[in-house]
Design goal:
Blueprint (H helix, E strand, L loop, with lengths): L10 H13 L3 H17 L2 H22 L31
Amino acid sequence: MVSKIFPADHLADQTLEFARRIARVPTMAALLVKESVNQSVDAMGFNTALNACFAQHQLNHSHWMELSRGRTAVRTTEFGMPDWRTSPAIEPARMRSP
């Protein structure tokens, strides 16, 4: 989850400062905030959505088992998956003007 975005030339310094700010929060306060957020997203159906996504994930494994005739539960280079070792480099996102 991304909660902050920093310019690349300030990334290391601002990330470290943000981590220090988080570390200064009292443990009990941080735990209570986290629990409050978790309960809120659960009330909005997050747990149900997560279960549905996991069911789809498992269905996809079954799909690949069928296509590979039981040889693999995941898509591999042998079955058309691009090889991550030869993929182009990931480029950082750039903010666009509105």
